[in-house]
Amino acid sequence: MARKHPKHGPYEDPAEDEAPAPAVPCWLCGRPTGETIVWHHPVPKSRGGRDTVPMHPICQQTLTANFTNSELQRHGMDVDGLLLNPAVRKFVDWVANKDPDFTATITKKKR
């Protein structure tokens, strides 16, 4: 016997009804985020941080390469304080005109 109603409902294409979500800006560089968004803890979780901010993966890699957890804890949510670091400022100026999904290898900080 045939079913009166389909088991899982009628087929609907979800792409027709939804408009693309607006890109949120990166917390560090201010560029719109692309396909991959990293939710970064400006104050590391190991130091009691709970807030998260959207970032590009390459921007997060730059922060972790240039700052220790205790330095990030001192800066907190102050992105202007992070941009005072010459290496971070140079990176943000360099990446400003790149594609939102741009990725590259970041050199590790020599400690």
Q: How far apart are the first and last residues' alpha carbons, in Å?
A: 73 Å
Poorly predicted runs: none
Strand order of the largest sheet: 1-2
- Outline, from the CA principal axes? elongated
Q: What's the average pLDDT?
A: 84
Strand count, sense and barrel status of the largest sheet are:
2 strands, antiparallel
Number of strands: 2
Show the helix and strand layout.
Elements: H1 14-17, E1 38-40, E2 53-55, H2 57-66, H3 69-75, H4 79-83, H5 86-95
Antiparallel strand pairs: 1-2
Helix pairs in contact: 2-5
Describe this structure in words.
Helix 2 runs antiparallel to helix 5 (about 85-95). By secondary structure, the chain is mostly helical. The protein is about 30% helix and about 5% strand. It has a domain at about 40-95.
